[in-house]
Specification:
Elements lengths: L1 H17 L3 H17 L3 H13 L2 H19 L2 H25 L21 H17 L5 H24 L5 H32 L9
Pfam families: PAP2
Keywords: Membrane, Transmembrane, Transmembrane helix
InterPro entries: PAP2/HPO (IPR000326), PAP2/HPO_sf (IPR036938)
């Protein structure tokens, strides 16, 4: 199952960071400073800071909640909507707990493009945007044609990639922080998706003979 595989990968990465695995820590540090130098431009810096604000967990979940409510009003698939929202909000609740447990300092780089407090692992922006993107796909899938589904999937993937790049370029997260965030959000989101599929399968199996089954 994709969700369990993602959560297992997250757990292994967490162990490697806590150990700490010297090669992984060195690779993280080698990425951080060059990435920030690439982004050391006033115009690009402004875009990065703007994207940071737009991809805040509160913004992602606020937008998701509104869209989920509209989708529920349209197709009334209560279980699907509740599972999607539960996955997104569970990720939002769990991420700071994991940050405090791992207790990893943010990157120590000269002249960071953006100063911020708190801990680094996993990235809250990455985990929450990933979970919200998957949750959005879950609630919109039944009401969209195939072409629309492709656009939702591509758009969600692009938002996740841009958010991860933003966190590293601003110097507030290591590469492994955002990777861990994606794995955490994807793992929880995929488990919610599996829950919707399991419910659909069991409903079909429970239908008495002679009652037509939905496609």
């Amino acid at each position: 199952m994709a969700g369990l595989a993602a959560l297992l990968a997250f757990a292994l990465l967490t162990v490697a960071v806590l150990a700490p695995w010297a090669a992984l820590i060195a690779a993280d540090r080698e990425v951080s400073t060059p990435a920030m130098r690439f982004a050391d431009d006033a115009g690009l810096r402004g875009l990065l800071v703007a994207w940071q604000a737009a991809s805040m967990p509160s913004c992602a979940h606020g937008a998701l909640t509104v869209i989920a409510a509209l989708a529920w009003w349209w197709h009334r698939q209560t279980r699907r909507v509740l599972l999607a929202l539960a996955a997104a909000y569970l990720t939002w609740w769990l991420t700071p707990i994991l940050k405090n447990a791992v207790d990893r300092p943010r990157p120590q780089v000269p002249d960071p493009l953006w100063g911020i407090g708190g801990y680094s692992f996993p990235s809250g922006h990455a985990s929450n945007v990933t979970a919200a993107a998957l949750a959005l796909g879950i609630v919109l899938w039944p009401v969209m044609p195939a072409s629309g589904r492709r656009w939702v999937a591509a758009g969600g993937g692009a938002v996740v990639v841009l958010t991860c790049a933003d966190r590293v370029l601003l110097g507030v997260h290591y590469l492994t922080d955002v990777l861990a965030g994606v794995l955490l959000g994807a793992g929880i989101g995929c488990l919610a998706l599996a829950g919707t599929r399991f419910h659909r399968i069991t409903n079909r199996e429970a239908l008495p003979a002679g009652i037509p089954r939905a496609a």
